[in-house]
Every structure is written in C-alpha cells, then in structure tokens.
Design goal:
The protein contains 7 helices and 2 strands; from the N terminus they run ββααααααα. The protein has 135 residues and is mostly helical. It is elongated, with a radius of gyration of 27 Å.
C-alpha cells in the first residue's frame, strides 16, 4: 500500500484515480503529476515501485495539499466571517454561499428542519369514549 502525503492510497485502483484521494488533487492535477513524473496513469497502485512512489512524492511536494490546504481554506472562511462580508454571513447561517436558490433545494447545506405548521394531533381519548356508549 502506497502512503503519499499522509494518505493511504487504495491498492486495487489505478494511480490516476488513487491520487485523487489526496485532498487538493483532482483529475487534472493527478494527470499533470503523472505526466511530469513519467508514470503510466493506467498502472495500479499495487504495481508501483519504490522509485515511482518517490517520484510522485517529489512532484506532490510542489503543491499545497492535505493539512496545509485544509488550514488555508479554514482561515479564508474565518477571515470572511471576521470581516462580516456577505459570504461570511452565509457561512455563519449555514446557507449556500455561491448564489444558489434556497426557496426549494439547498437541503444538503441547510439540513432538514421541522416544517412550520405541522399536522394537528387527534385526541385519542375523545374518540374511544364515544364508541363505548353506542354498543
């Protein structure tokens, strides 16, 4: 099992897909890394040699990935909240930030909330007492 940037890559997947398990590396960057290190993207992670893994590690060191990238993103969001920008308010209120509609949809970000004006509960004791007298 190859461990790159603190992430265990899955053994049975191709290296092109396996690199996308690292936070900050998508399909385009994975293809770029493999082209620069001259490794076949169709090769499985389990088939990589130690030299190839070292080449990939050296290429990934040029980018900001995993912990460093996560802290940078968190600091950017915190900065938006501190300066009280519109995007910062949207982050604070747990609403979509990038202009999506919220009248319908946006359930993933907003979460499920109780609806206003639910159904009224029917009194169970009132119905049972009226049926006893009619027998």
């Amino acid at each position: 099992m190859a461990r790159i940037a603190g992430v265990d890559l899955p053994k049975n997947k191709r290296i092109f897909i396996g690199l996308t398990y690292i936070f900050g590396i998508g399909h385009t960057r994975a293809a770029d890394i493999l082209n620069k290190s001259k490794i076949d993207p169709l090769k499985k992670v389990s088939e990589l040699t130690d030299e190839e893994i070292t080449l990939i590690r050296k290429e990934i060191e040029k980018y900001k990935v995993e912990g460093d990238l996560r802290t940078e993103v968190a600091m950017n969001v915190k900065r938006l909240k501190d300066i009280q920008s519109y995007k910062g308010f949207r982050h604070i209120k747990n609403l979509p930030v990038r202009g999506q509609r919220t009248h319908t949809n946006a359930r993933t970000h907003k979460g499920s909330r109780p609806s206003v004006g639910g159904k009224k509960k029917v009194a169970a004791t009132a119905t049972s007492s009226t049926t006893k007298g009619k027998s």
